[in-house]
Amino acid sequence: MTIMYIPHGHCYLWQTNLVGLHVIADGLIALAYYSIPVTLLYFIKKRQDVPFKGVFWLFSAFIISCGTTHLIGIVTLWYPIYWVSGFIKAITAIISIYTALVIIPMLPQALSLPSPTKMKQINDDLAAQIVQRKDIETSLRETQERFILAVRGSGDGLWDWNISTGEVYFSPRFKQILGYEEQEGENHYNFWESRVHPDDRDRVMAAMQDHLENHVPYAIEYRLRQKSGDYCWIYARAQAIWDETGKPTRMAGSISDITDRKRAEEALQQSEAKYRALIDTTQTGYVVLDQQGRVLDANQEYSRVTGHCNVSDILGKTVLDWTAPYDLERNAAEVQKALAERLVQNLEVDYCHPNGKIIPIEVNARVIDTDEGCRILALCRDITERKQARQELKSAIADLARSNQDLEQFAYVASHDLREPLRKIRSYSDLLVKRYRGQLDERADKYIAYITDATQRMQSLISDLLTYSRVSKPELIPEPTDLGHILKKTLADLSPLIKENKAVITADSLPTVNANSTQMAQLLQNLITNGIKFRTQQSPRIHITATREGQFWQIAVQDNGMGMEAQYRDRIFVIFQRLHYREEYPGTGIGLAVCKKIVERHGGQIWVESELGQGS
């Protein structure tokens, strides 16, 4: 027989407010029940020292089951799962009873726990005892630390030798210096004596015997063999104690590891030897002077530039002894200036050899302070060959300037004189075209066209060559030049070319500079024309900017043309150099060379920044 239960909501006549009230109340109770065990479990996880952890777990299980009964109460409003509800309540009852049974025997233990007031009193008593004990420990520790710091601060190893028994106390640091642990090694005189370097043993034993017998202070440097077999350098000091009969009974002292110092001294000696060898073999003269200019030290090269054979010949003498007579006053003043400014750079003086030969010398010097006083360290180089080369270079530059001037004059004259014959060739070739085109065979027409084209190109080349030679022809007289005004005139002159190519030219505010206005117009015209000529399928767009760079203005002409590869950036400024065939882009390859000459003549620089297909 199946029994059909009705949902609990029927008991509330499915009144919405009443059902909602029970749902909300049971839901909040369940939420509270679930949050409490979570808090309890988090607490016991963080406080591992809390007693009765099992009770906390039972309470958590009890509270969770209670919360679950309230959730089931919500479900039974719509679903009659009363058997499930009963089982959960039974489980809750079992957990509750078990929890109560566990808690009852634990009550005596819980009641025996001290109260917060008593715990505070116990803690205060313990704190007072701890403070008192810490004060005692601190005092003892400070006493020990003072002794340890006194020993460790010096880095010394201590030893104490009982002369009658041969027993020796070696401190941990003593054994550490020799590479031993504290418990290693025999605490006996033989342990130390057997490790003294054979080459030092006699000297060390004599020093010790002298101290024990004659009371001579014992302080000596020698080598001791370490555990690894290597030797370390040590500095030993000691003091003996004698009895009333004068017999030594005890001797105590310390050792310091000076291996690093010894190595540094050895390295310094080697460095000084290398330095001396370098000074003696260098081709630069080296000399050390005192405040009066007397030679204290020098190398062989310096004695040579002074006209002497050996360094010993110039020691103790002053630099004025071999200074040219006309340079004496200046050289004496330079010595005093060096002492004041502590530095001399690239000073040129003339030395006079005993045979009367004059040698030009370049001097670089620095003043240093020593225990003996100020010293001037100077490097002196014979610059005879350099001065001769400088004079030869000066002459070569003058010859080159004359040659360039002659070449420019020749180019100007040659270009000017070639124009008349070319004009005649052009006139007669034009007559041939007018009278005989079509009357001769096709080959003759082609030859005449070749002559006409070659003549036109030759005329363009001569015209550009004349322009290039004229750039440096007149004397450059800079004057305030408004580049904005020059740009407006240039754009007006180029207006047919700009309209033909539908070019867009824009510019920022341009400054007034000291320059030749005519050449500035030519410079801007060539750069703008270049940007229009080497265009892509797009309409040319050119923008001109000006940026202040210190005492210079940087003028940039940027276009959206075809650009170029990096390997061609310097080539475009060379006269007659072209990157394209003449059939693609007309011209002679002189335009940018003219720009370069104009800019450099005004003391500036010109360069291109470009990428292929990205403009310039």
Summarize the structure.
With 616 residues, the protein is an alpha+beta fold. It contains 16 helices and 15 strands.
Topology (elements, then pairings):
Elements (H helix, E strand, L loop, with lengths): L15 H31 L6 H23 L6 H31 L3 H39 L2 E6 L5 E3 L1 H6 L11 H5 L4 H17 L3 E8 L5 E12 L5 E10 L1 H23 L3 E5 L5 E4 L1 H6 L22 H14 L1 E10 L5 E13 L2 E10 L1 H53 L5 H29 L8 E4 H11 L1 H6 L3 E4 L4 E4 L1 H17 L7 E9 L2 E8 L31 H11 L15
Parallel strand pairs: 12-14
Antiparallel strand pairs: 1-2, 1-5, 3-4, 4-5, 6-7, 6-10, 8-9, 9-10, 11-13, 14-15
Helix pairs in contact: 1-2, 2-3, 11-12, 13-15, 15-16
Question: What does this molecule look like?
Answer:
The protein is of the alpha+beta class and about 625 residues long. The protein is built from 16 helices and 15 strands. The chain starts with 15 loop residues before the first helix and ends in a 15-residue tail after the last helix. Mean pLDDT is about 75; it is low at about 580-585.
List its traits.
about 625 residues; alpha+beta; five-stranded antiparallel sheet; 15 strands
Structural class: alpha+beta
Given as residue ranges, the uncertain stretches (5+ residues, pLDDT < 50) are 580-584
The dominant shape is flat
Radius of gyration based on Cα positions? 53 Å
Distance between the first and last residues' Cα: 100 Å
In the sheet with the most strands, the strands line up as 2-1-5-4-3
Strand content is 15-25%
Overall residue-averaged pLDDT value = 76
Summed up, the helix count is 16
Helix content: 40-55%
The main β sheet shows up as: 5 strands, antiparallel
Q: How many strand elements?
A: 15
